[in-house]
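Weekly structure sync, notes
Attendees: PL, DS, HV (note-taker this week)

Item 1: Bifunctional UDP-N-acetylglucosamine 2-epimerase/N-acetylmannosamine kinase
DS walked through the input record. Source organism listed as Dasyornis broadbenti. Sequence as pasted into the shared doc:
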Amino acid sequence: EVYFKNLSKQKQKEVMEKNGNNHKLRVCVATCNRADYSKLAPIMFGIKAEPQFFELDVVVLGSHLIDDYGNTYRMIEQDDFDIHTRLHTIVRGEDEAAMVESVGLALVKLPDVLNRLKPDIMIVHGDRFDALALATSAALMNIRILHIEGGEVSGTIDDSIRHAITKLAHYHVCCTRSAEQHLIAMCEDHDRILLAGCPSYDKLLSAKNKDYMSIIRMWLGEDVKTRDYIVALQHPVTTDIKHSIKMFELTLDALISFNKRTLVLFPNVDAGSKEMVRVMRKKGIEHHPNFRAVKHVPFDQFIQLVAHAGCMIGNSSCGVREVGAFGTPVINLGTRQTGRETGENVLHVRDADTQDKILHALQLQFGKQYPCSKIYGDGNAVPRILKFLKSIDLKEPLQKKFCFPPVKDNISQDIDHILETQSALAVDLGGTNLRVAIVSMKGEIVKKYTQLNPKTYEDRLALILKMCVEAASEAVNVNCRILGVGISTGGRVNPREGIVLHSTKLIQEWSSVDLRTPISDALHLPVWVDNDGNCAALAERKFGHGKGIENFVTLITGTGIGGGIVHQHELIHGSSFCAAELGHIVVSLDGPECLCGSQGCIEAYASGIALQREAKKLHDDDLLLVEGMSMKEEEIVSAAHLIQAAKLGNTKAESILRTAGTALGLGVVNILHTVNPSLVILSGVLANHYVNAVKDVINRQALSSVKSVDVVVSNLADPALLGAASLVLDYTTRRIY
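Item 1 (cont.): predicted structure, written out as tokens:
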């Protein structure tokens, strides 16, 4: 212990030598009211006790110098401190304007004082408007600031003032671990933050055993017993003055009804205090036999009063902070201390809107004794603060440094960020469902709507218009600007005119349909239309595996077989818009009949419809189900049952899937030999079942020059909608340089 003490002294000596030939640190402590003096006094005593290290200047301002608030500067004199300067800074009026004017008056008077004192550091406490004026003056005059009790959270304007002072201060003394973390989160330099505890606790924790009965009798009467009286201290809430006055009125009514001896302290100088005093006088509190109304109680006596009270009530920070050291029950009213850390002795009545609530709280709390809490300190704050002050190197740069956490690059002016909320309406016309979605520039499906696809042209077009109008209206609520409408549909499409030339058998009454005109007229937006296979390829080009690939092919393996071809980064449509009808590549001259009327098409082997057809044949012959499978009587046989049977070892199902995979693989080989892409993307619900079979066929059947092609499964969840969206997003945002 001696070694470490000597080491500490040596370090302090080195700092003093750095500061220049045993230069004493000139400390200015500015106190504004009775509350902050209770926190600053222990530090002032500590500084005064070490004259070899410090010179102390005391500046008094604010409500200390007002008779209505007890002329509390006298207790500073009684503590034997020389007051260097008294500044009358309070503009009377006790309203919001008076608070602002008081700050302004302090800012006018303080520069002259600071010029004369020339302190090395100013100590400022808390979150009062007077303290904000002190911190502002010191910061602008290049005086280092040590802020006491920063990082805490409470209600009202105090929070904003406290955090504003934190930003101005160079050094910070906080009382709790949570407050320390808040300061770090506010980007303050961790090396300039001291977790010391509350200075007032140094006095609190040594005060309880002193003679207290004489103090209690002096303030409350000869007949009062310990734990049989109440201390009430309530301040106005500056952000809701009208409500806080009403709450004070209800508190006094509850105290009158509760019928216990009560010491009521006058409120502070904040806006609304004058009205609260009027409420006290209107109810006759100053002359009521159960009440003692006082403007001020010296802090050491106030400690004894709350330590032995039956209860404390109000909204003062003292109730949630200092009183916990004694385990005295506290009733915290309203929102003024919202966010403060409290011990179990505090009962919160946040919505104190009736007398009964407050009265019930008094009945619950009065006379209890709780465990003592040391959330805010352990009684050793002052030695830590003095050591911290001695470690300050005045030769360090005065300019504050903020420790900002790592953040992403600022992209507020980046074109990708600007386009982020630009979106498209995507429409997918499937054989079963009609879907509309809002899709962002980054491929996020912001909102999706699904309805059954009507059977007739009129009903279908009416539903498309209705869903598009609803989605366009919703886009405003989700902060999306719709650039246009993209439509993905089965069949052959003229994308230049926006016309469906003729459709597959899955979508009835869907030939020679002009989609662009009615939708564009209804929404006043540009409209693009294309085949669903082409849209899947566009989706891959913009959002999927095809991004940045010059030549690739997409194959959709679903109810039917479709696809799209991208060559030199552009989609191929063909002379009559029939390019990339990949499902109708013939792989066998005598194969099964296809829905197109031909035989031996890939779709006749590998589509969902083809697999369902083969599954039904097996089921009719009682050859589908194997051990581990079951079907309900009304259940429709589907491709999924065939796949399940194959997985469970049904050899006939395995053979059908193998044939389907081979047919698809042969079709891919033909594509490789025709357009020679560098990538083949399998999309749709059956892609995972076919990918290995396709790779095997390529290895067996393809020319060696194309065997190196990559075959992958799409990672896009909804290629049809994303492709329809990319019709819009690619064209409306294209820039030509």
